[in-house]
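[audit] Reproducing an earlier prediction to check determinism. Same input, same settings, fresh worker. If the C-alpha cells differ from the archived copy the diff job will pick it up downstream; this log only records the rerun itself.
[audit] input (363 residues):
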Amino acid sequence: MSDLEQLEADLNQRIADAADETALEAVRVAALGKKGAVSERLKTLGAMTPEERQVMGPAINGLKSRIADAIAARKTTLANASLNARLVNERVDITLPVRPASLQEGRIHPVSQVIDEITAIFADMGFSIAEGPDIETDYYNFTALNFPPDHPAREMHDTFFMPEKEDGSRMVLRTHTSPVQIRTMEAHAEAGDDIRVIIPGRTYRYDSDQTHTPMFHQVEGLVVDKTSHLGHLKWVLAEFCKAFFELDDIKMRFRPSHFPFTEPSLEVDIGCDRSGDKVKLGEGDDWMEILGCGVVHPNVLRFGGYDPDVYQGFAWGMGIDRIAMLKYGMPDLRAFFDGDIRWLTHYGFPPLDVPSLVGGLSR
C-alpha cells in the first residue's frame, strides 16, 4: 500500500469515527487545513520533477477531493442524526388540548365587579364618581362630619392613627368614604353647583371576623341641591336595590337611627326569607339591614361651604363587600382578601363580562 493510500485509509477511518460535527471539523482541519496532511503533500509538488509532478499531482488532488467529499457526506449524516434526536426529545403532541387563553382563565374580583355594577346603576340615574385619599386628616374624617370631640370613633381601638406630627396632629386611615363628601362640597360650593355623586373606595377599621375585616370597601352617595328630600332618597335606594339584586319588586323598611353627619338618620332593611340554607331576597317575612342613610346634617353642609338655609340634601352608605356576599352567596368576608386562586376562579367574573343595565348586571 502506497503512502497516499495509507493516508487516505487513515483519514477515512477518522471521518467514520467522528461522533459529532465538532470532531468532524477537527478531522477536516487535520487533513485539509493549511498545515493538514493532504495540504502538506500538495506543497511538495513544487520540488518534484515534471515527470513526478505529472503523476503525483492528479493523485494528491484526487485524494483531496475524495476526502472533502467524505467529510461532506459524514457531515450530512451527523446533521440528520442530530435533527432526528432533537425531533424525538422536543416532540410536541399536537393532539393535546391548547392551553386556555388568558381571557379565558383570568377572573375579575367580585369587589371590582360589584363596584362596576353599582357604577352602572347610579350612572343611569345621573350620578358621577368622586374619589379621595385613603389617608385623611382628623378634620375631614371626623370634625367636618360633625363628630363630637369625645365620639368613640376617635379612640385608638376603633381607628388606625398615624404617628403624631410635630404639632401633635395625627393623620388617620379613613374609617369611611364620607370625607370625600366634604371635599366634593368644597370643590363646588363657590359656584353653588348641585351635587350628585357616588363615592366607592377602601376604608379601614380595627375589626376582623367572618363579616368584618380591617380593610373593606364602601360606597356612599351624596345629593345636594335646593329641593331634594327623603322621598327622593327612598326612591333612589329602592331603584338601586331592585336593579342591583335584579328583582322586579323588593320590600324595604326605613328605621330611625343616629349618625353624626345626617339628621334625621335612617337604617334600611330589605325583606328576605331566612328559612333555608340561603337568604332569599324579595320574599319571606324576615328583614336584613343593608345600609344607613339620612338627610345631610346642616353642620356638614356648613363645613362643606353650603348654606343650610338654602341647600339641603341626602346621603347614604353601604358596604360593597357585604352586598357582594349577599348577592353572590359568599359565606366568609375574609376569603375576599386571601388571594386564593381557587376561590377567585369559582366566584370571579370573566374579564369581558362588563356590567350593563341593558345586558344584565350579573352573569
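[audit] rerun output stored. Observation attached for the diff report: The beta strands are 128-129, 135-136, 172-173, 195-204, 215-225, 252-259, 262-273, 280-281, 286-296, 312-319.
[audit] end
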